[in-house]
Task: inverse folding
């Protein structure tokens, strides 16, 4: 135990539930204890219990690395930063400021996410910044902004779900991704009111067994049609809230006309969900009050993800749920700071406080805080996948923070190839992730138990992350790295390395914006204050949004007519299936962290593909056999997991594994035209038995 170690009340480093934990320094690391907190009620999942193992692993990066042919060599910080700054300067001189790109992450603290957006616009002068939240929350965010005029994942505290009569969960496997959350579903299950929509009989879907509720198992990619069918029934059977709709919404007449096209028999034919089940779900949603509709990545990670989330909001508005006590609509944020990370400037079109970079008043306000002329700020950049597509053509250097794109981005092989065309790839990470393995320079950074900062959880609550241990000698905070690079680049403005000071600046920059943090500080948060944004100066915060009005100028929510853009195509060959990707309980996102925790890796050491028994028979495959999934983009080998918990036309792969086991070797780089969300849940693949066993590699060659 080092002299500067101290017991710290903090939160889990992984998902957006941000379970509360106490980190106690020990002789050889730190011990995790769960803390009582409204979201986790003293519970943690196995990822949280084992999280401290990340802090003391022998493969932590502790010195900057520079590529030398196929190897890395350790270099000093001064040399590394001089070299990075020198190359950035040269590229900017030759190609202009937009030749440098920045790729951020939804796991960064609010302070780092804020500073990264400022660093890109002020120190680098580039518009080319976006982040991996584009692959996570972008569709729900776009739908929330369109309907409500604001995007806060849950516009109410998680604990409000405790008294629910009915909860409709669309495309979310919370029992695996955030297990403590299911405590909040107990009452709804007791009342037979948990309704889960998922093509798989997932861990969450199984919570509907024994009277807990209803599981709807639509064909992959037909979620939007399913919701349109529910809307049709709600209107046709007179279940809509006729008092709420004229008072609190606009657009009902057009929505009613459009809903005519989605009669139940048509919806049954397209989704495979029987008409009586559709009717009983619609009726259940409308009865008794106490109804919540929640969406997750399963319905959002599509080329029509924004419209699907919009349809879910339309359904909630028709039933009079948003802003009504004891009812609501929300989306379940995934990454640890997926909420705060999308509010303070990492998005290509956004300034801190969830302001639009195209809004002259927002630019003037933020430029004043940053001490630069408003017209020096670049305009909007391009979203993540478009940014990755520009690598080697218009973008010649990329700085990556808290993201492992060669595992997590769609069409992963082409992303790796594009990274190889860069003149400079700089990756800040605490392990040599698969993306870091391709870098020219790797900068070792501090991680969660070694740093101060704030995170914003899935319920829009700002939380303190606290330091329990000293970072290894040689690791540096990203705030320090940005400050040093800004100095070397002669950037204007101030570049504090103190998270509390950076938060104060963020609070000022956010003042008056939709995500207003101006009434908050580290000091106030340390008093135990419950802090849901918006939290303007002098206020007490906003646990529940929409109680009186929505955020559009007229105070009303928008009912927006949406249609499926592309109907599901039928399998084109005997071995063709629809691939859906998702998460396992034991691993988190690209697995760069959880694959390094022995207990988690031992529980899920290799890639498995779920197949229905009938499909397995047709393919001549038994449980445990090696199989190959292939399409025009690539091939993946996995071990077959034969289960009745999946449709016969569907195969499921988790996306946590590297090398030849990357599910994203198969996914396509097509995106939602509104949110730029890639299509992760509807990929055509052909599946065959393979003669050899799957190999999980840890490295990807450049
Ligand atoms: Fe809680 Fe999520 Fe951490 Fe699990 S991973 S302990 S659910 S915050």
Result:
């Amino acid at each position: 135990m080092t002299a500067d170690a101290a017991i710290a009340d903090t939160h889990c480093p992984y998902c957006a539930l941000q379970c509360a934990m106490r980190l106690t320094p020990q002789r050889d690391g730190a011990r995790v204890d769960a803390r009582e907190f409204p979201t986790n009620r003293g519970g943690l999942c196995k990822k949280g219990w084992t999280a401290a193992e990340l802090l003391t692993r022998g493969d932590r990066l502790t010195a900057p690395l520079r590529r030398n042919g196929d190897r890395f060599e350790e270099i000093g910080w001064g040399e590394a930063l001089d070299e990075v700054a020198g190359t950035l300067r040269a590229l900017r001189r030759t190609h202009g400021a937009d030749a440098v790109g920045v790729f951020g992450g939804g796991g960064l603290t609010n302070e780092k996410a804020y500073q990264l957006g400022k660093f890109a616009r002020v120190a680098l002068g580039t518009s080319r910044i976006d982040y991996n939240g584009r692959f996570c929350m972008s569709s729900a965010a776009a739908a929330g902004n369109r309907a409500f005029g604001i995007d806060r994942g849950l516009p109410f505290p998680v604990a409000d779900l405790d008294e629910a009569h009915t909860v409709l969960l669309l495309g979310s496997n919370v029992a695996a991704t955030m297990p403590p959350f299911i405590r909040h579903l107990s009452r709804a299950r007791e009342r037979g009111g948990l309704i889960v929509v998922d093509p798989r009989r997932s861990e969450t879907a199984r919570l509907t067994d024994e009277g807990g509720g209803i599981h709807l198992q639509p064909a992959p990619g037909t979620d939007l049609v399913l919701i349109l069918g529910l809307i049709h029934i709600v209107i046709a059977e007179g279940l809509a809230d006729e008092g709420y709709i004229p008072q609190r919404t606009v657009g009902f007449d057009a929505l009613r006309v459009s809903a005519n096209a989605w009669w139940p028999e048509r919806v049954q034919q397209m989704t495979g969900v029987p008409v009586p089940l559709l009717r009983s779900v619609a009726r259940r949603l409308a009865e008794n009050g106490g109804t919540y509709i929640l969406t997750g990545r399963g319905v959002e990670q599509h080329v029509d993800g924004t419209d699907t989330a919009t349809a879910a909001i339309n359904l909630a508005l028709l039933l009079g749920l948003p802003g009504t006590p004891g009812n609501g609509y929300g989306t379940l944020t995934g990454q640890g700071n997926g909420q705060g990370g999308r509010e303070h400037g990492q998005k290509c079109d956004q300034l801190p406080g969830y302001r639009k970079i195209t809004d002259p008043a927002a630019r003037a306000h933020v430029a004043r805080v940053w001490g630069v002329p408003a017209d020096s700020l670049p305009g909007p950049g391009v979203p993540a996948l478009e940014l990755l597509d520009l690598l080697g053509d218009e973008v010649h250097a990329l700085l990556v923070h808290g993201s492992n794109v060669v595992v997590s981005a769609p069409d992963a092989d082409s992303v790796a190839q594009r990274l190889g065309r860069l003149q400079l790839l700089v990756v800040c990470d605490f392990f040599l992730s698969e993306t870091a393995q391709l870098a020219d320079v790797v900068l070792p950074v501090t991680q969660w138990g070694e740093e101060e900062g704030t995170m914003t959880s899935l319920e829009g609550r700002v939380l303190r992350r606290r330091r329990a241990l000293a970072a290894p000698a040689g690791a540096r905070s990203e705030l320090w790295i940005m400050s040093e690079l800004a100095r070397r680049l002669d950037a204007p403005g101030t570049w504090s390395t103190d998270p509390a000071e950076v938060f104060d600046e963020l609070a000022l920059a956010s003042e008056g914006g939709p995500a207003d943090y101006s009434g908050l500080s580290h000091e106030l948060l340390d008093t135990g204050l419950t802090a849901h944004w918006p939290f303007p100066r002098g206020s007490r915060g906003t646990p529940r949004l929409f109680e009186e009005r929505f955020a559009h100028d007229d105070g009303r929510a928008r009912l927006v007519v949406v249609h499926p853009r592309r109907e599901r195509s039928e399998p084109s060959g005997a071995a063709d299936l629809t691939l859906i990707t998702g998460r396992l309980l034991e691993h988190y996102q690209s697995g760069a962290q959880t694959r390094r925790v022995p207990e988690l890796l031992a529980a899920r050491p290799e890639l498995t593909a779920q197949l229905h028994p009938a499909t397995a028979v047709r393919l001549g495959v038994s449980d445990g056999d090696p199989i190959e999934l292939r399409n025009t983009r690539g091939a993946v080998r996995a071990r077959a997991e034969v289960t009745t918990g999946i449709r016969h036309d569907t195969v499921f792969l988790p996306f946590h594994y590297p090398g030849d086991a990357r599910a994203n070797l198969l996914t396509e780089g097509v995106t939602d035209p509104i949110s730029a969300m890639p299509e992760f849940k509807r990929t055509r693949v052909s599946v065959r038995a393979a003669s050899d066993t799957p190999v999980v590699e840890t490295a990807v060659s450049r």
Q: What stands out?
A: Residues 77-95 form the longest helix (19 residues). The chain has 22 helices and 29 strands. The two ends are 39 Å apart (CA to CA). Residues 1 and 28 are 7 Å apart (CA to CA).
